[in-house]
Specification:
- This protein has a domain at 10-41.
- 38% of the residues lie in helices and 20% in strands.
- The chain is built from 7 helices and 13 strands.
- The strands form 5 sheets. The protein has a 5-stranded antiparallel beta sheet with strand order 1-2-11-12-13, covered by helices on one side. A two-stranded parallel ribbon has the order 3-8. A two-stranded antiparallel sheet has the order 4-5.
- Helix 2 crosses helix 5.
Length: 315
């Protein structure tokens, strides 16, 4: 019986080469995929480490701010105090984080920040006291809106929004609020009429603080806020602001004397010291940049004074 002809040796070698090339290509694809996955995993771990390191630097900066505020013993608060000195962008080294090597060229760490007086602005939550509008605060707010050229109807809209965010009695029981409470200035965008141009006009003058008993610090407030709350002329408020840069007041009677209001010794809407401060900071480490805004409340002074974080927001 005749045999089938054998395949040509050259064809066999060619098929073997093609097969070898396919195997090598597949192996290269698999290996490169493994290397890529390994690179992604390493980068993810590095990012998590950088974020963790950034949080520790952030915590250290907040602890520093608390110490500064606790140590402040002056009877009044003014940006000339120690807490008012901003921290320019500063490069950190491993001594800051207990030995973690963050100072090499590839992984530089930078910190910048400042502490500001949160009571230098009008606290909108003071417009409502015990569920009902507060006439003195509403009158001051109306004057402020008039000075800024904004419609006074926005005050009523804001009061209504604040009332909806507070528990209220209904048929002998307390019902929960219908809206979430306002926490930060940006939350005012949810109030009807507070458009972006209105927000920009009010940003330097309004704030949101959790305590409705906070007064406005005349040593840090804007001339418009001072004029509206103290019910004085804007020119008198501007004259006081230019004077306080070099000589802040230590009491309200001194303030009223400087602005030409005789016989006034106090006002529940004004103060010369502060309990709430904002700490704004930027931390850059490796590929991570963290911008934080933290509200701090100071209830007492001294080494054992109570200074605590109210809220913190990160960008």
């Amino acid at each position: 019986m005749p045999r089938a002809p054998l395949a040509h040796p050259r064809r066999q070698r060619g098929a073997a080469i093609v097969t070898a090339l396919v195997v090598v290509t597949l192996a290269a694809v698999v290996v490169s995929g493994l290397f890529y996955r390994e690179s992604v995993a390493v980068r993810s771990i590095e990012n998590r480490l950088a974020i963790s390191q950034t949080r520790w630097v952030e915590r250290a900066a907040l602890d520093w701010a608390k110490v500064i505020l606790r140590a402040d013993q002056t009877p009044y608060d003014h940006p000339n105090d120690v807490w008012g000195t901003p921290v320019a962008e500063t490069q950190l080294d491993e001594t800051v984080t207990g030995g973690a090597n963050i100072g090499d060229r590839a992984r530089n760490a930078f910190l910048a920040g400042a502490v500001t007086d949160a009571q230098g602005k009008f606290n909108v939550l003071t417009l409502v006291d015990g569920g009902v509008p507060s006439p003195p605060h509403m009158e001051a707010m109306q004057r402020l809106m008039s000075m800024l050229g904004l419609p006074g109807s926005l005050v009523a809209q804001l009061v209504a929004r604040i009332q909806l965010s507070q528990p209220r009695p209904f048929e002998g029981r307390v019902v929960p609020p219908l809206e979430i409470p306002l926490v930060r200035f940006g939350d005012l965008r949810d109030v009807q009429g507070f458009t972006e141009p209105v927000m920009q006009a009010l940003q330097a003058h309004l704030t949101v603080l959790p305590d409705v008993n906070t007064g406005i610090n005349v040593n840090t407030a804007t001339p418009e806020v001072i004029a509206a709350v103290a019910d004085i002329s804007l020119s008198a408020a501007r004259g006081f602001v230019s004077q306080r840069e070099h000589r802040p007041v230590s009491s309200l009677p001194e303030f009223f004397k400087l602005v030409g209001v005789d016989g006034a010794g106090s006002s529940p809407l004004l103060t010369v010291n502060t309990r709430f401060f904002l700490v704004n900071g930027v931390i850059r480490y490796d590929r991570v940049e963290s911008q934080t805004e933290t509200l701090i409340r100071r209830d007492s002074f001294g080494p054992r004074g109570a200074v605590q974080v109210v809220w913190q927001h990160r960008n």
